[in-house]
Design a protein that fits this description.
The protein is of the alpha/beta class. It folds into three domains: 168 residues, Orthogonal Bundle (N-utilizing Substance Protein B Homolog, Chain A); 55 residues, 2-Layer Sandwich (Alpha-Beta Plaits), CATH 3.30.70; 210 residues, Rossmann fold. Helices cover 43% and strands 14% of the residues. Strands 7, 8, 9, 10, 11, 12, 13 and 14 form an eight-stranded mixed beta sheet that branches. The radius of gyration is 24 Å and the shape is globular. The N terminus is likely disordered. The protein binds S-adenosylmethionine.
């Protein structure tokens, strides 16, 4: 672990775009990082995604700020309740963000080796950050007083705020209530899993290299242990700088969670069973193309040819599909259009398989995107469920009778999964639900209380339903 100012530096983050802070030769002082972390938190609180919020962070600060802001977002519920106990009158936004960030990192220290700062160092550096910024300078003494009181009365303050569900579970109250409603017996396990960082998982492009060869290349060239997951995945023992891994530019792998790696086999195994010829496949919400690429790679691994139409409503995200396919040496027909309005883009030829990886709350991928829980609103669940319903209804007529549509979301909420499909099947008499994984929960099989819901072990929360269209179409 690198050291600056007597402060241990975080080395990795569990995000798929992970940057190793140890790669930075001269780590900047912690107060500068805290200043940027507080700015990222302010932006997320105003509704910006973490990805957008951290765009302007300077390169030298980026690895540390990324890792620290992830920890802050994971502990923000407790930190906010502590700040309210220490300073009942809400301070200005920059002061509030600096206080909450420092409190969150002090808490993170208890549970994560990646955020191992000494509490007194954290407080000293937070006060230094406050003094050096015009937005917080006048409040530096106040910040100092709040944080020193926290250090003195930590245990009493923490046990006081932990009575609030959003403080003890680090999720908004409505989110906790939604999970309690959906999973009376399992909601706590899901929330517990969300507190951890996700592992880095790769999908090996088996058209270009084998999983065993790639596993060996990771170990020999980078001293990274990895073990097989899913059909062609490898879970890494620790995160790494993605473009620095072997064969990135040659397209040997993609970063993709193990649960997401279920889509291609689920859809194509069924489609290949029913047809020996070339298949025409629609990937209806395709950007940035993770599953599009997997469909093509998986077909090649089975010596089958498929033609893929990759659709996304967002033209700039369509460019990312094209770039990703180019890197992986794959090709598809990429169309920027609304999947809910086939009359604007469909050529009238029925599809042999359809993947609908629908827009959703992303409530299953909180481990990788700790900002998501603070960005979503309760009303988003029903709004997104309505959009999913519209997309399903619009795409169903495009499927050849006898063929299958795979519906998936990276959500654990039943409104976006189980309930959505129950409603769809009730309304479409020609739709038959095939054996499907249903709701998968974010977890590691190594954690106590793990639900061991499937064979993959460690993975994100997801929902899958495979729907076959009966031959007598309505
Ligand atoms: C969950 S993401 C898809 C991830 C992608 N399948 C992958 O594996 O990389 C959902 C996508 O749906 C797209 N989307 C949202 N509404 C849409 C619509 N009406 N028609 C087509 N795409 C849409 C979004 O732009 C977003 O890229």
């Amino acid at each position: 672990m690198a050291s600056t100012n007597g402060v241990r530096q975080p080395t990795t983050v569990g995000d798929s775009t992970a940057v190793n802070a140890a790669d930075v030769h001269h780590s900047p002082p912690l107060w500068r990082q805290l200043h940027e972390v507080a700015a990222v938190l302010t932006a997320v609180r105003s509704g910006k995604s973490w990805t957008t919020a951290q765009v302007d962070v300077t390169d030298s600060l980026r690895p540390g700020v990324q890792a620290l802001s992830f920890e802050v977002l994971r502990h923000y519920g407790t930190a906010l309740a502590l700040r309210a106990a220490l300073a009942p009158r809400t301070p200005s936004a920059p002061v509030d963000a600096l206080l909450c960030s420092t409190l969150a990192l002090a808490l993170a220290q208890d549970v994560s080796v990646n955020a191992g700062y000494e509490p007194h160092t954290l407080v000293n550096q937070a006060v230094e950050a406050a003094k050096r910024s015009p937005a917080t300078k006048a409040q530096a003494s106040f910040i100092n007083a709040c944080l020193r009181r926290f250090l003195r009365e930590r245990d009493a303050l923490v046990s006081q705020v932990m009575r609030l569900p959003q403080a003890s579970w680090n999720h908004p109250a409505w989110w906790i209530q939604q999970l309690q409603h959906d999973y009376a017996d399992q909601w706590q396990t899901i929330l517990q899993a969300n507190a951890a960082a996700a592992p880095m998982t790769l999908r090996i492009n088996t058209a270009l290299t084998s999983r065993a060869d790639y596993q060996q290349a990771l170990l020999a060239g980078h001293d990274i242990k990895a073990w097989p997951v899913a059909h062609s995945g490898l879970q890494l023992a620790h995160s790494a700088y993605v473009p620095g891994l072997p064969g990135y530019h040659q397209g040997w792998f993609s970063v993709q969670d193990a649960a997401a790696q279920l889509a291609a086999p689920l859809l194509l195994d069924k489609a290949f069973e029913h047809s020996g010829g070339e298949l025409r496949v629609l990937d209806a919400c395709a950007a940035p193309g993770g599953k599009t690429a997997h469909l093509l790679e998986y077909a090649a691994s089975k010596a089958r040819h498929i033609e893929v139409v990759a659709l996304d409503v967002d033209p700039s995200r369509c460019e990312r599909i094209t770039q990703n396919l180019q890197r992986l040496q794959l090709s598809a027909q990429v169309i920027a259009a609304d999947a809910g309005q086939p009359e604007l883009w469909w050529d009238g030829q029925l599809f042999d398989a359809i993947l609908l990886d629908a827009p959703c709350t992303a409530s299953g991928i909180v481990r990788r995107h700790p900002d998501v829980r603070w960005l979503r609103r309760k009303t988003d669940v029903q709004q997104l469920a309505q959009l999913q319903r519209k997309l399903l209804a619009a795409l169903w007529p495009l499927l050849r009778p006898g063929a299958s549509l795979l519906y998936c979301t990276c959500s654990v909420f039943k409104a976006e999964g189980h309930e959505q499909i129950q409603t769809f099947v009730a309304r479409h008499t020609d739709a038959v639900l095939q054996p499907s994984p249903g709701h998968l929960f974010p977890q590691s099989p190594l954690q106590p209380g793990s639900m061991r819901d499937n064979r993959l072990g460690e993975h994100d929360g997801f929902f899958y339903a495979l729907l076959q269209k009966t031959a007598a179409s309505t």
